Amino acid sequence: MKLQTTPSFVSKLTVKPLTVGLIAAGVLTLAALGLLVTRSHAADAAKPGATKPALTVALTQAKDNMLGIKLAANGSLAAWQEASIGAEANGLRVAELHANVGDSVKRGQLLASFAAESVQADVALARAAVAEAKANAAESAANADRARAVQGSGAISAQQVNQYLTQEQTGKARVASAQAQLDAQLLRLKNTQLLAPDSGVISARMATVGSVVGAGTEMFKLIRQNRLEWRGEVTSAELGRITAGTAVLVTAPSGAQMKGKVRRLAPTVDVATRNGLVYVDLPGAAPSIAASFKPGMYARGEFELGSSGGLTVPQTAVVVRDGFSYVARVGADNRVSQLKVQTGRIVGDQIEIQRGVTPEDKLVASGGSFLADGDLVRVVDSAPAAVKPSQSASK
């Protein structure tokens, strides 16, 4: 039994190694074939023009342009002059108010009326006093004329003559005094109507109907001629760059813009902030624009300080990554290289490149954010990179 079992076991040991060897040979053959296929694909990929372009782009180049130089500053809007309108008559009751806040008024327009009954009575008394003084003066003048006629004849004494002449002068003085009192009462009567001293807009009203006000009590505030100014705060180092007549573009919080001119510069600089004020006149504008400019608003202004040359490219050619600006330069082989640049002023759809490119560099006009160093691109017609002469830049 043992002799029969042993050959069967040996037979199994002999056949198994042969099978394993065949399987191993097959695996090696397949691996060799796979390596050949991989090398064939790599060789095909290495052929020129076989890589697919990452993007189709248009090219642009930096161009020299004249750019405006602007100095930005912040400040507040204020009235050019604000007139304080008060009562001149003392102890009169406000009978009626004819203007309210926001009303546009003309010079001499009625703003408020006071009760005038007591003043009119005083005027009547003054007129009567004038009439009485004139009558007494006429009698004194007649007596003086008769005295002068008989003077020297001895009919009356010299003392009496002098007395008549003196009474004549006194009568004239009394007439002048009564007339002055009448003029004062007429002035009080005139002051019972409060008139606008200038054209403009009512900015405040403190008066109320029925109140008794004293002389000098403020009743209205008026923005003279509806004229505003912008008071820009400029550092002491930059004040020297600004002169009277410099053009300024003021932007309101709503985005509305108005052009003005520098009227004057403050003669001193604030000790705490080291800033100086620049007073800019804002002329009248269309109602839709003027409505966006109110005294007390905080506004931004840009002083136009001239122009200078610089290289510009379309803003779409500049990509910002991690706080730095880049442009994509395309080489002769249509492959991209990223260049870090320093940007400056902005003019319309153009941006100034202060450092990093030359006019000879061919740059991707748009889509640079989708490209990386070494990417292959397909180039189409170049995009224009021009700037309109009428545009200005900000610094």
Average pLDDT, rounded to a whole number, is 83
Beta content comes to 35-45%
State the separation between the terminal residues, measured CA to CA: 108 Å
Q: Report low-confidence residues grouped into runs of 5 or more.
A: 1-22, 29-49, 384-395
Strand order of the largest sheet: 2-11-14-13-12-15
Tally of separate helices: 4
Structural commentary:
With 395 residues, this protein is an alpha+beta fold. The protein folds into four domains: 1-37; 55-67 and 307-380, conserved putative lor/sdh protein from methanococcus maripaludis s2 fold (Beta Barrel), CATH 2.40.420; 72-80 and 227-306, Elongation Factor Tu (Ef-tu), domain 3 (Beta Barrel), CATH 2.40.30; 85-205. The protein is 29% helix and 35% strand. It is built from four helices and 21 strands. It has helices at 2-45, 117-150, 158-190, 287-290, and strands at 55-60, 63-79, 82-86, 92-97, 104-105, 110-114, 193-195, 200-205, 212-213, 218-224, 228-235, 247-251, 257-265, 275-282, 298-314, 319-321, 324-330, 336-347, 350-355, 363-364, 377-380. The strands form four sheets. The protein has a six-stranded antiparallel beta barrel with strand order 2-11-14-13-12-15. Strand 18 (336-347) and strand 19 (350-355) form a beta hairpin. Helix 2 (117-150) runs antiparallel to helix 3. The longest helix is centred in the first third of the chain and has 44 residues, at 2-45. The chain is rod-shaped, with a radius of gyration of 49 Å. The termini are far apart. Residues 1-22, 29-49 and 384-395 have low confidence and may be disordered.
